[in-house]
Design a protein that fits this description.
- By secondary structure, the protein is an alpha+beta fold.
- It has two domains: 2-133 and 318-339, Gcn5-related N-acetyltransferase (GNAT) (Aminopeptidase, 3-Layer(aba) Sandwich); 136-316, 3-Layer(aba) Sandwich (Aminopeptidase), CATH 3.40.630.30.
- Helices cover 38% and strands 26% of the residues.
- The protein is built from twelve helices and 14 strands.
- Helix 2 packs antiparallel against helix 8 (200-210) and helix 6 crosses helix 9 (256-270).
- The relative contact order is 0.15.
Amino acid sequence: MILQPSPEQWDAFIDSRPGGHILQTSAWGELKSHFGWTADRVAVMRDGQIVAGALVLFRSLPLRLGTLAYIPKGPVLDFDDEAISLELLSGFDRLMRRHRSILLKIEPDRLAELALSVRLTHFGFRPSPQTVQPPRTITINIACHDDDILAAMHPKTRYNIRLSARKEVVVREANESDLAAFNALMQVTGERDEFAVHSPEYYALAYRLFAPGNQARLFVATYQEQVIAGLFAFAQGKRAWYFYGASGAVERERMPNHALQWAAIQWAKARGCCEYDLWGIPDEDEATLEAHYLERSDDLWGVYRFKRGFGGKVVRFAGAFDRVYDPLLYKAYELYLKSRGRSK
């Protein structure tokens, strides 16, 4: 067992895992550490190699009551290996004591299944109603010919991708000088669609941390050289994710967002990805989604109308599980979340 393996050790391990997630990279920990979190790492070693572990994020509670601990899309672990699981759990406990954590929240990068839930309960975790990442999403198989990807889309979406080109929308890979325009569009999008956006500094640091290593691309759509929409995609191993999208109030009829998604898919394919994750839809079964997407626009329902057009498969991940270290403060934390309407 080692606490705080080096970034190089840790990233080599994440790169070696077929399902290694971008949110478990050391760069993601560095990004979050500039915006209210502290990042740490814990790993289990065998024969000098990391075989399991996690990037853990910590956020301080008010009044010096300790910290909340969170593992995004992790831990990276074979949960069926009892010995390694228990060793890693011991490492978590030591790390939680060091950081005075009242709870450890994990969101495994595993599809929802009863066996996993039972296993995590066995290890002292409880299902949590409060998630950080959206548990349900749409994934697109891009390990095939472009014609097959397009054929799987809804006809209107396929039409709009081609329409954007006819309407003189030009999509290009952006550089750091385009971040100001992207940030301005993010503010417009957040106000229009009523969701919180990150600060300009956040997107700028994300670009500097991930773009040089081909782990991210910022795309902008222009019309007559004016930036009218943008998209920030990330990739790790064989998977890519659409994390951030922005569009202005003008020229929306030119369908720049459709063109941007197609450009991001092309980039992901070119770097060897087999899956493109549209990242976040309402947490409802597919029958409910299809029955109500035309009448609802709250929460993620509006983006579902857009994302469903790209075809793909609706999947649900395991969601969140909490390991509680201070039951009294954990209860206060739950009440606080309910008072803010965040429990679901």
